[in-house]
Amino acid sequence: MAFSDRDLLWLELMHTPEFTPRYIPSLLERFGGIERVFEAGLLELGEIGSSAAGGIAARAGRNAAQREAEMLEKSEISLASFESEDYPPLLRKIPDPPPVLYFRGKLDITKKPAVAMVGSRQSTAYGEQVAQRLAGDLAARGVVVVSGMARGIDQKAHQGALEAGGRTLAVIGSGLGNIYPPRSEKLVEAIAENGAVVSEFPFDTPPSKGTFPQRNRIISGICHATVVVEAAERSGALITARFALDQNRELLAVPGPISGRMSIATNYMIKKGAKLVQRVDDIIDELPAEVQTTLNPPQELGPPPELNEPEAQVYELLSVDTPQHIDIIARRAGMATAELSLTLLSLEMKSLVRQLPGAEYVRIY
Asked: Is 1.20.1740.10 the CATH classification of the domain at 309-363?
């Protein structure tokens, strides 16, 4: 795709030394548009108090912007500037909106109701199952599920939305030419086909300790509400939670076992006033009334599938939040491993049981 002259000016601003996003609102308020910013003199630019004024006046970012535009075109990556129609409407309202968003997919989905779902990379089977189920239920109602594509809760949220045939958006902590986490190509393709993969960082920016906290303000800023599924005491998900509060967005949390390390932060958040989430309606109820009226009606659950005697026996032995190894299930059920394997497969096909790595199983409901 070819970039417009306006797009190139926004890229130039991005590459201007010492420029930071917090000056975007004051720049546009003072000058009215990106073209006028670059037509202004040094004295006028100095009025906004940015140390980047000299670099803007000297067009210090022009060459870097042109080089990056060429890389983006070759990689078929699109650009949405702060003034673009595709720019997420809610993101414009945060204190430090990114000047541009690089994306693959369909960024216009951010005009639909959106909920962020985040949590720990070191997630438990319980947390992953909850994230996947809640994300799927939100997607079925027409809500865009937004997360950070990190391993653990984030990826389960994306997968849950995709499995429900819904829309999801990933905000990554690196450039789109340097996807993190590695070996995520299939998930990236699936998200781009059914939503968008987004970054505020230039094409070849590597991931770092600083880029992930910075991108978290975008995850919450795109959304009406943020749900924290699991978080340890020092989890990065808490940064997203703080951004949500600073941005005056709703904050919700999923409770967990009081002895669980991954539930320390979420339980504490609920204690301090975050909305407790047990089902998707708890999230929907916190969205603005005008947003709720645009959602799909709840899906009516059909009758549970009929289970034969071995299936019913195994199903009752399984737990939603505690994975069990197939050998333990066989011993408790008094079944041979071959018979149990067929029974578990049947339950999986009926969407009642999920197999986890290491030959462990949990109930879905």
From this structure: no
Instruction: Give me the tens of pLDDT residue by residue for the chain, a chain 365 residues long.
Output: 678 999 999 999 999 999 888 888 888 889 999 999 999 988 888 888 778 889 999 999 999 999 999 999 999 999 999 999 999 999 999 989 999 999 999 999 999 999 999 999 999 988 998 999 999 999 999 999 999 999 999 999 999 999 999 999 999 999 999 999 988 999 999 999 999 999 999 999 999 999 999 999 999 999 999 999 999 888 888 999 999 999 999 999 999 988 889 999 999 999 999 999 999 999 999 999 999 999 998 876 555 678 999 999 999 999 877 889 999 999 999 999 889 999 999 998 887 888 888 889 988 77
Please provide the CATH number assigned to the domain covering 1-74.
1.10.150
- Virtual CA dihedral for 78, 82, 86, 87, nearest 10 degrees? 110
Q: Would you mind telling me the total number of residues written for the chain in this entry?
A: 365
Question: Which residue carries 């009406």 as its tokens?
Answer: 224
Q: What is the largest CA-CA distance in the chain?
A: 83
CATH topology for 107-292?
A: Rossmann fold (3.40.50)
Place of tokens 């600083």: 210
Spans of all domains in the chain: 1-74, 107-292, 309-363
DSSP SS3 for 71 = helix
The pTM assigned to this predicted structure is 0.84
Structure tokens that stand for 71 in this block: 């890389």
